[in-house]
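Hello,

I think I submitted the glutathione job twice by accident. Can you confirm which output corresponds to this input? Input:
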Amino acid sequence: MKLYALPKSLNSRKLLALIHHLDLPVEIVAMSVEEVQSDGFAAINPNRLAPALVDGDLTLWESNAIGVHLARGSTMLPNDARAQADALRWLLWEGIHYNKALGTIFFEAVVRPQLGWGATNQPLVDDALQQVEKYLAVLDAHLGDRPFVLGDRLSFVDFAMASAEPYRDRIAIDFDRFAHVQRHYDYIATLPAWQRALGNAPVAVAA
Ligand SMILES: N[C@@H](CCC(=O)N[C@@H](CS)C(=O)NCC(=O)O)C(=O)O
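Support: Only one job matched these inputs. Its output is below.
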């Protein structure tokens, strides 16, 4: 299996963390933005976006679909139908609403200046900030009485939800106002697989 990834991007990171957490035999192909936009890569993902997975004759794009494929049968995805529907609910919400808004802010505030891709699109950022406030309140209330998004157990959904965790301090959102999201992000940041996905040495955990 091969995962084509932009290692520093939000949507690739959730999968790198999952692969490290489950120690899956997946070859990670680290790509540049130019490679992702190339005609060659369009044969794998016609959207010219990363990540994409090639597993034998199955080619998958959309990070959360890839995550479900990789996590199936493991502790990182529930087995029963109702719990899987709940996982799907949150994975769709994450992609369509929550991290769509966070990702826009991240792209404009962090990626665009880094790549030298012109000036920040401030109206877009202002709109995304408004959206993200609404969705952060939803996630914060949900995490108020459960440690993980799906309840008592860590799952791939937590990795998806925490995609923006490393950039908390670099985007114009006061996460301290969302104490349960902060606590969830803090926990995810302690996981060795998460740190490895970030390219960091594992965080020392007290015995
Ligand atoms: N909904 C897609 C989004 C993929 C996406 O937007 N990927 C970005 C990085 S997070 C990308 O490849 N950007 C490269 C480009 O825009 O040229 C997913 O979840 O996989």
